[in-house]
Amino acid sequence: MADATTIDRVNVLLGSADSAVVLEVVSLVEDQLKLRLGGANEIPEGLRYIVVNVAVARYNQLGDEGKSSMTVEGESADWLGDLFAPYAADIQAYLDGKNSTTGGVKIRFL
Questions:
Q1: How confident is the model at residue 66 (pLDDT cuts 50, 70, 90)?
Q2: What is the mean predicted confidence (pLDDT) over 70-89?
Q3: Cα–Cα distance between 25 and 82 in angstroms, integer?
Q4: Disulfide engineering: 76 pairs with which of 23, 42, 71, 110, CB 3.0-4.6 Å?
Q5: Spatial distance between the Cα atoms of 87 and 81, rounded to a whole number of angstroms
């Protein structure tokens, strides 16, 4: 279930958006982030900003799924293939910190 504060923050950034669509987009983004966090049950408070930013970007892409760029009357737009890419380092830092603070062991085969 999408966090109410996160939905409010997304709505503020989008202005007058369809609430049902915003709720669905936020829920999907949360599910994707939980998967990237190793199947987490909850999203840590420190990473909620990722949900807000990715949800806004995803909402703005509705209707343009599958496009990588578009030009109309001299104005062009480019879309990221992976909306989480700008946050990969933050996600990895969280995962690394989680493993080191819980005594997790990493084994690397070379």
A1: low
A2: 79
A3: 15
A4: 71
A5: 13
The three-state secondary structure class of 78 is strand
**Could you tell me if 106 and 99 are in contact, meaning their C-beta atoms sit under 8 angstroms apart?**
yes
* HEC secondary structure over 21-54: HHHHHHHHHHHHHHHHCCCCCCCCHHHHHHHHHH
Q: Which two tokens stand for residue 32?
A: 């994707």
**φ and ψ at 43, to 5 degrees?**
-95, 125
Give CA–CA dist 7/98, Å, rounded: 26
What is the distance between the alpha carbons of residues 96 and 103, in angstroms, rounded to a whole number?
A: 11
Question: Residue 59 CA to chain centroid, in angstroms?
Answer: 11
Whether 82 shows a pLDDT value over 60: the answer reads: yes
Distance between CA atoms of residues 50 and 86, nearest Å: 9
- Residue 104, token pair as written in the block: 């997790």
CA separation for the pair 43, 50 (Å, rounded) = 10
Contact of 51 with 83, CB cutoff 8 Å: no
Q: Do 84 and 91 form a contact (C-beta atoms < 8 A)?
A: yes
